Amino acid sequence: MRVLVTGGAGFLGRWVVKRFLDEGDSVTAFDNLSNGSEENIIEFMKNKSYNSKFVFVGGDITNVNELEKVFASFAPDVCIHCAAQINVQESLDFPEKAFKDNVVGTYNVLEECRKSQKGSRKTKLILVGTCMVYDTAGTASGTAISETHSTKPASPYAGSKMAAEELALSYYRGIGLPVVVLRPFNIYGPFQKTNMEGGVVNIFIKRALDEQDLNIFGEGKQTRDLLYVEDCAEFISMAVKNDRAVGEIINAGTGKDVSINDLAQIVNETVGNKSKIKHVPHHHPQAEIMKLLCDSSKAKKLLGWEAKTSLESGIRKTIEWMKASEQKK
Length: 329
What we know:
By secondary structure, the protein is α/β, with parallel strands linked by helices. Helices cover 42% and strands 16% of the residues. The protein has 12 helices and 13 strands. The protein has helices at residues 11-22, 42-46, 48-51, 64-74, 88-93, 95-115, 156-175, 200-209, 229-241, 260-271, 297-303, 311-328; strands spanning 2-6, 26-31, 54-58, 78-81, 124-128, 179-184, 186-188, 214-217, 223-224, 226-228, 249-252, 258-259, 277-280. The chain has a 7-stranded parallel sheet, sandwiched between helices. A two-stranded parallel ribbon has the order 7-10. A two-stranded parallel ribbon has the order 8-13. Helix 1 (11-22) links the parallel strand 1 (2-6) and strand 2 (26-31). The longest helix has 21 residues, at 95-115. The two termini are 36 Å apart. The mean pLDDT is 94.
């Protein structure tokens, strides 16, 4: 296949790129590098086993001309749309950016997919959404969230991602564009940032390795279903290849959640450090989701997919990568 990955130099995007290259596909990564980095994809540029099938194109999904050029030159069979504004706090401070990147940007991508249809060939769009769209207020302990669970976005980030999903599905229902909406739960692993733009696992690991305090927002009772990034890339690959996924919304998670308090303890123990765990005032309590536990039974039934990597194993892999990255500096 010819696979176009928007946001292909970002954390998840680079793993999606790697997955499809390893499967023998031709891949173009399209990224404006506002959140991604060429360091994430340098191995695909330099490694001879990859570079004959890999191209990086600098560009922005909000720039119609740049999108038109990459679609025209690459003629993708499938577009995996990972590019997005992903920071909750930034969306609260600057809602317009979330709207432009996540709604207008997705519209632009949809239009290029629509226009690229030739005869019976239709460019499939895989939209990577977010679990942050779900309403978890009052969710009972142990209740997993399925795709039929009610939604209630609590930030412009989540709201704009929800709007992008609805727009994409309208293209499927009204125009016949093959669209798949994926909602992975909290992803972590190698190449994710360790600042506030990153995820809690990587932030904790970095601070523990540096023997700094592990700061927990609020009481730390909020829970997350933490999905290792390579499992997520496999999930996306399987959704691309299965025509039964078209027109569907599909969750991905492990089916196990962990409190942020317990996560801090696990990271400390795995690193072998005794960093202090501190509770600090929450910077956006109004947008906090207290319980995220994924019901991914639909992914198993429809795609035959389920997560393989345990939290402990994923944390160890991420620690090893982080240590190796530090040694290279």
